[in-house]
Amino acid sequence: MKTIGVFYGSETGTTADVARRIAKELGVADADVHDVDKLSPTRLGDYDVLVLGSSTWGAGEISQSWYDFIAGAQSLALQGKQIAVFGCGDETMSDTFCDAVGEIYDALKDTGAEMIGRFNGDGYDYSSSKAERDGSFVGLVLDEVNHPDMTDGRIKAWTDQIKREIA
């Protein structure tokens, strides 16, 4: 059985909450849900599947705590691992909606890990996102500001997909 670790960076607590909700759907213990601001990137080596999440800030940046963590993660040998990315954003910031998901994806796609967890872009209202590629998102994107009522369904659909991809 593959081990799953959930790693998040959160400025206001929203992404931390979403990370715990995703972990619950994946059957991941609380001890395997990590704030990237409080540990070394080497902890990624403890898991087969890495679920990574960030909020989007400013002009489409990742959460502040991710910068050093990603720099360290890029130097690790992640061959044989699978990475899924999720993030929170605000559709009213329509030209940078959930850019953090695309930032993490781009930073880690060449590490030798298999990137999994693409998500359908239907039902979102934005003009541009670094997370979008060829009509779908490279990971799960959520808008807890304008559409919190859709979050649970989207988490469920995405985690069901992740379970199939890691089987």
Secondary-structure blueprint of this entry?
Layout (H helix, E strand, L loop, with lengths): L3 E6 L4 H13 L6 E3 L13 E9 L3 E2 L3 H8 L8 E7 L10 H10 L5 E3 L2 E2 L11 E2 L2 E2 L2 E3 L5 H19 L1
Parallel strand pairs: 1-2, 1-3, 3-5, 5-6, 5-10
Antiparallel strand pairs: 3-4, 7-9, 8-9
Helix pairs in contact: 1-4
How would you describe what is shown here?
This protein is of the alpha/beta class and 167 residues long. It has a single domain, classed as Rossmann fold, CATH 3.40.50. 30% of the residues lie in helices and 23% in strands. It has four helices and ten strands, in the order βαβββαβαβββββα. The strands form two sheets. Strands 1, 2, 3, 4, 5, 6 and 10 form a seven-stranded mixed beta sheet that branches. A three-stranded antiparallel beta sheet has the order 7-9-8, with no helix packed on it. α1 links the parallel β1 and β2. It starts with a strand and ends with a helix. The mean pLDDT is 94.
